[in-house]
Amino acid sequence: MEFSSAIGSAAAAAAILILYYYLLRRRSLNPKYKLPPEAGGARLILGHLHLMGDAARPPHFYLADMADQHGPIFTIRLGVRRAVVVSSWSIAKELFTSCDAAVSSRPKMRAIKHLSYGFAMFGFSPYGDYWREIRKIANTELLSSHRVEVMSHVYEPAIAQSVKEIYSRWEDERNIYKDGLSGRVLVDMKKWFAELNLNVILAMVAGKRFSAAAGEDDGEEMRRCRAVFRDFFHLLGLFVPADALPWLRWFDLGGLEKRMKRTAKELDGIMAEWVVEHRRKGGDTAARDFMDVMVSAVRGSEQLTRQADADTVIKSTCQMIIAGGADTSSVVLTWALSLLLNNRRVLAKAQEELDKHVGRTRRVKESDIPNLVYLQAVVKEILRLYPAGPLGGPREFTQDCSIKGYHIPKGTWLMVNTWKLQRDPDVWSDDALEFKPERFLTTRHGNIDVKGQNFELIPFGAGRRICPGTNLALHMMHLVLANLLQAFEVGTVCDEAVDMSESLGLSNLKATPLDVLVAPRLSPEHY
């Protein structure tokens, strides 16, 4: 009797599975539920997960190759998860306009959970009231175009000081000719950009100012901050196996989650020290920074503290702005100088423009930037070829959508391959892969902006979740690059080409150092 019952149960279960498969297949064949094509190369169980962590070749390269095979919209499998990959500006436009609300949330990935205070960090928090309120405060108090201009007393002296430090080093070593450098000094510009941008954003957010000339303690704290924020962005861009295969959540394969927790703890320690300092000083001084604003904002705010406790809201928000503000600008500026050194004609033309509109009898100022049209075109072209976030931030469909006739089910992840999208020959012609700033001085591309309205060029994203720090990033890129090119002649050892290898991570950091020979091109009194 029991045996017969067991057979009956097994038969019933098999019938249910067959019926489920039949209904699922009918749904998939229904044009109404047609899914985007799935890319080849998937492995059993893992799907395409093996392509996401290849240190030899970043994921946006693989996804670009898949787009050439499968078209501008296709799906990949990351274990049990499905992700839609988009590489077309017209599809991106549809996503970030008519479907924008449906793609404005973030997937609850383990890297984000560990590194963002359990999704309290507004850049990675779910789309909703908390995200809107924090973003509003950040825009109003720090990141709007007006606020960035008002903060010029912070970033202009920081840039001047960093330029002076290079000059002082050259002055100390000008009579020492090593390896045929002939009066030029070798500078790690990747490090220089990173320290300058971190100094600026730390001053704006937390009132912190570090200088290489200020002493060993300052230098050590700067190195500590720079290293931990670099780890933060690198780890955010990595896939944890348990995201794709939930049954692995009890196993930390490769020790990734341990590293994430350690980095989060170290960052939290730094931020906690600063919050204590700001609470102690009261925030009523003339030197009021963004952390002071956050301390005041969370006091008695039920809306803000509904997501997390007050200190967590302050720390997570300030940490997000510091990480994003410092990383994006330094990454792009590193690519900028690399491209200019590999394209000396463009470098010479940018310096000629500076000599024409600014001259060499004074230092370039923010008010000069509108007149430096070619420099602005250079920055646009750099952002086109080497966006700081080649895949943007991961997103998740919170409702079923129809995109270009394809059905995208709720819960599907979204990746926009900005790196591929911005190299489309149908938009940028046959020289799309070439570094050619002049394209932005033509009638065809002259009016294209980078602020999310022209979907052919969206290095900062688009829609509701466009990067809130766009204004600050552009200010820093233009001003730092203008100061550097005006102040120094730059070159490479033996005129060698710069290695353009890219690295893994959420941001597209140059994989190798950028050692540059520099020599002053202004009179000593201008340093």
What string, H for helix and E for strand, traces the elements in order?
HHEEHHHHHEHHHHHHHHHEEEEHHHEE
Number of domains: 1
Low-confidence stretches: 1-6
> In oligomeric terms, what are we looking at?
single chain
Number of strands: 9
Strand order of the largest sheet: 1-2-7-4
Please identify, by name, the CATH architecture: Orthogonal Bundle
Mean pLDDT: 87
Provide the CATH superfamily: Cytochrome P450
Tell me, briefly, the overall form. globular
What profile does the largest beta sheet have? 4 strands, mixed
Supply the number of helical segments. 19
Structure description:
The structure is a single chain. With 527 residues, this protein is of the alpha+beta class. Helices cover 50% and strands 7% of the residues. The chain is built from 19 helices and nine strands. A hairpin with a 2-residue loop joins β5 and β6. α5 packs antiparallel against α12 and α9 crosses α11. 44% of the residues are buried.
Brief overview:
The chain has 527 residues and is α+β, with helices and mostly antiparallel strands. The chain has helices spanning 2-29, 59-70, 89-95, 110-115, 129-143, 145-150, 152-173, 189-206, 216-236, 241-244, 256-281, 290-298, 302-305, 310-342, 344-357, 373-385, 418-421, 425-428, 470-487, and strands at 73-78, 81-86, 185-188, 395-396, 401-403, 406-408, 413-416, 488-491, 515-520. It starts with a helix and ends in a 7-residue tail after the last strand.
